[in-house]
Amino acid sequence: MEEKFLIESLSPIERNTLPHLTGDFSNLDEISEKSGQDKTTVFRATAFLKNKGLIEDKTSGKKRVVLGILGINYLKKQLPERALLDNLVEKKTIPIGEIKNVCDLNENEARVAVGILKKKAIIQIDGGRVNLVAKPGEIRNKMIEELFIEKLPLELDKLEAQDKLALQNLLSRKDIIEVEEQKTIEVRLTKLGEEIASKDLNINLIEQLTPKILKQSSWKGKKFRRYDLTSPSPRIYGGKRHFVNQAIDYGKSVWLEMGFKEMSGDLTTTGFWNFDTLFTAQDHPVREMQDTFFIKNLKGKLPLDKKLIEQVRKAHEGGIDGSKGWSYKWDEEESKRVLLRTHTTCLSTRTLKKIAENKEFPAKYFAMGTNFRNETVDWSHGFELLQTEGIVIDKNANFRHLLGYLKQFCKKMGYDKVRFRPAHFPYTEPSVEGDVWVEERKQWVELIAAGMFRPEVVVPLLGENIPVLAWGPGFGRMLMKFYEINDLRELYKNDINKLREMRFWMK
Amino acid sequence: MTILTVNRKEFEKKIGKVTKEIEEKITNMGTPIEEVTSTEVSVEVFPNRPDLLSLQNFALAVNQFNGKSDLAKFNIQKPEKDYLVKVEKSVKNVRPHTVCAIVKNLKFDNEKIKEIIDLQEKLHNSIGRNRKKVAIGIYPLEKIKLPITFSAKEPGDINFLPLDSPDRKEMNGKQILKNHPTGKEYAHLLENSEVFPIFTDADGKILSMPPIINSEETGRITEKTKDIFIECSGHNLHYLNKCLNIIILTLSEMGGKIYSMDIKDPSGNLVTPDMTFSEMPFEIKNLEKTLGIELTEKQTRNFLAKMGIGYDNRKGKSIALIPSYRADVLHWIDLAEDIAIAYGYENFEPEIPEISTIGGEDPHGKNKRIISEILAGLGLLETSSFHLVLKKDVKKMHFDYKEFIDIEDSKTDRDTLRIDLLTNLLQIFSENSNASYPQKIFEMGRVFALDSSKETETGIKETERLAIALANEEVNFTELKQILDYLFKMLNKEYSIEDVEDNNYINGRSGKIIVDKKTIGLIGEIAPRVLKNWKIKMPVVALEIDLGFLSN
Question: Which residue of B has its CA nearest to A299?
Answer without folding.
Answer: B458
